[in-house]
Write a structure and sequence with these properties.
Shape: globular
Order of helices and strands: EEEEEHEEEEHHHEHEHEEEEEEHEH
Number of strands: 18
Largest sheet: 8 strands, mixed
CATH superfamily: Alpha/Beta hydrolase fold, catalytic domain
Number of domains: 1
Strand content: 15-25%
Structural class: alpha/beta
CATH topology: Rossmann fold
Strand order of the largest sheet: 1-4-6-5-11-12-17-18
Radius of gyration: 19 Å
Distance between the termini: 21 Å
Length: 354
C-alpha cells in the first residue's frame, strides 16, 4: 500500500494582524491511495477531541490503524487534523493563540483507557480491550497520552471550523463517506446538512452527545446526572441545522427530559417537546452509529439515536457487544480488536452498496 502519497490544506484564508497577515482556518489533510482501488467513494476519517489524525494511522501497540485497514480493503482514505488542531496550526489574535485547554492524564485514564478502575458508569467494569494497564507509567498509555494535544476552549468555534474545513474538502474531492469519532460526530451531521449530495454515508463512532445537555457521571448508585447548561442547543449540534418546518431559534425545540429512554444501565435523555421537525438534508444518507460495550457512550448514545428517529432520519444503531465484539471503551480504533471493528464497519458499507 502507498502511505501518505499526498498532503495538502483546504479552507481558511488570510487575515490581517498587527505587523502583517496570517493564514487562519485551514485544515491539514493526508490522502492515502491503495495499491488497487476497489471502491469509488473514499473515506474521510475525522478524529475527536484532544486528538489528531494519528488516531487512525497506527495503534498505541504498533498495529496498523483504521486507515490501513480500509486501504487494504481497497478504499482511498483521507485523514485530517481539525482546524486549529495539530498540523493545521493556530490562528494568532494580537500575537497570541486563542484560549486552549486539554485533558489531564487522570481524566484520560478514567474515561478512555481504564474506565474499569474508576467505575463511573454501569458498564465501565466490562472494559477489557485496551492494550496495557491504561495508566501512567505503562508504555502504551504514555505513548497515547503523549499524542494528546490542546484544543480551542470555544467549542462553537471548533464546530464551525471543522464544518467549514470538511465542506471545503468535499467540494474539492467530491462525494465521500465520513467516519467521525466522538467530538467530530456533530461535524458529520453539519456537513451532511450543508452538502447532502456529497456525503454518501456516515460512520458515527460514539458521536458527541447526548442531545442538548451533557451527562455528569458520578458512579454508583445514582450514576447519571444533568446540569442546567445546554451544551448542544440544536439537539445533536451546537450550530444551527436545517429543520422542516423551520426552527427559528433553538429554544423553539423545547428540550424536556424523557424518562422512557432510561433503564438501570441507560440514562434518560433530553428530547424536543415541540414538533415534529425533520432534518430533510440528512434523510436518505446511510448512517451507522457504533457504541462500545464499556464506554461512557454506552450509557447515552441511544438518546442520539432517538433524536435522529424523532427528526425522521433513518439510521442503524450498533452496540458492538451485540455483534460479538465485547469490552470496548471509547478509543475503539486503538484497542486490541480494532481490526475486527473495522471489518464490521466495512461489512455495513458493503450492505449499503458503499
Amino acid at each position: 500500500m502507498k502511505y501518505a502519497p499526498e498532503w495538502f490544506f483546504v479552507g481558511g484564508g488570510y487575515v490581517s494582524a498587527p505587523g502583517g497577515s496570517h493564514y487562519a482556518g485551514q485544515m491539514y489533510v493526508e490522502r492515502y491511495e491503495p495499491d488497487e482501488r476497489q471502491h469509488e467513494i473514499p473515506v474521510v476519517m475525522v478524529h475527536g477531541g484532544m486528538q489528531t489524525g494519528t488516531n487512525f494511522t497506527t495503534t498505541v501497540d504498533g498495529r496498523p490503524g483504521w486507515a490501513q485497514d480500509f486501504l487494504a480493503a481497497g478504499y482511498a482514505v483521507y485523514v485530517i487534523d481539525q482546524p486549529e488542531r495539530g498540523r493545521s496550526g493556530h490562528r494568532l489574535d494580537d500575537d497570541k493563540v486563542a484560549p486552549q485547554f486539554r485533558y489531564t492524564a487522570e481524566r484520560t485514564t478514567d474515561y478512555f483507557t481504564d474506565p474499569a478502575g474508576a467505575k463511573l458508569w454501569p458498564s465501565a467494569e466490562r472494559h477489557t480491550e485496551w492494550p496495557g494497564t491504561g495508566r501512567m507509567g505503562d508504555p502504551m498509555f504514555d505513548r497515547f497520552f503523549a499524542s494528546q494535544v490542546s484544543q480551542l476552549a470555544d467549542r462553537d468555534a471548533i464546530e464551525a471550523g471543522a464544518r467549514d474545513g470538511l465542506v471545503a474538502l468535499l467540494d474539492q474531492i467530491g462525494p465521500a463517506i465520513l467516519l467521525t469519532h466522538s467530538q467530530s460526530g456533530p461535524f458529520g451531521w453539519l456537513v451532511a446538512d450543508a452538502r447532502p449530495d456529497l456525503v454518501k454515508g456516515i460512520l458515527a463512532i460514539e458521536p458527541n452527545g447526548p442531545p442538548f445537555k451533557d451527562i455528569q457521571f458520578s458512579g454508583a448508585p445514582d450514576w447519571f446526572g444533568y446540569g442546567e447548561d445546554i451544551a448542544r442547543a440544536w439537539g445533536i449540534t451546537r450550530l444551527p441545522m436545517t429543520f422542516d418546518p423551520p426552527v427559528e431559534t433553538p429554544e423553539d425545540l423545547r428540550p424536556a427530559l424523557d424518562t422512557s429512554l432510561g433503564t438501570d444501565e441507560l440514562a434518560s435523555g433530553y428530547m424536543p417537546s415541540s414538533g415534529p421537525h425533520t432534518l430533510p438534508n440528512l434523510a436518505g444518507i446511510p448512517m451507522l452509529i457504533v457504541v462500545g460495550e464499556a464506554s461512557y457512550h454506552a450509557s447515552y448514545d441511544h438518546c442520539t439515536s432517538a433524536f435522529l428517529n424523532w427528526a425522521g432520519v433513518d439510521h442503524d444503531f450498533q452496540r458492538l457487544e451485540d455483534a460479538g465484539l465485547t469490552g470496548n471503551s471509547h478509543m475503539i480504533m486503538m484497542e486490541r480488536n480494532s481490526a475486527d471493528v473495522a471489518a464490521l464497519l466495512m461489512q455495513w458499507l458493503a450492505k449499503r452498496g458503499l
